[in-house]
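tool=predict chain=A
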Amino acid sequence: MAKNLAVLDRRKARVRTSLKNVAYGRPRLSVFRSSKQIYAQIIDDVNGLTLVSASSIDKSIKSSLKTGADTEAAKTIGMLIAERAKAAGVTQVIFDRGAYLFHGRVKALAQGARDGGLEF
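tool=predict ok
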């Protein structure tokens, strides 16, 4: 198990390093997915602040979701974070998939954020 975690940590560090090289000051849309929920937050790395966040356990959206672990929930969270980001004045971000492959729920969240108006 420890070997698998080390591989994930190395992959996450590799992705984050490549993002910092091309970010040019844009905030980072970071994704975390567990087996039951999905979380997203927009982080300003220059100031070290979380600007907005959304997750499948938010009280405003939890009742409308069947489960937090499917692509429909991920797309809804993507649209929600795009809406909150626009309210905070953020329109361009860089997408941080972390150690996850750009597939399934992570891809659905990205597509929902794009449909909501975020550019990346």
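The first strand starts at residue 28 and ends at 33. The mean pLDDT is 94.
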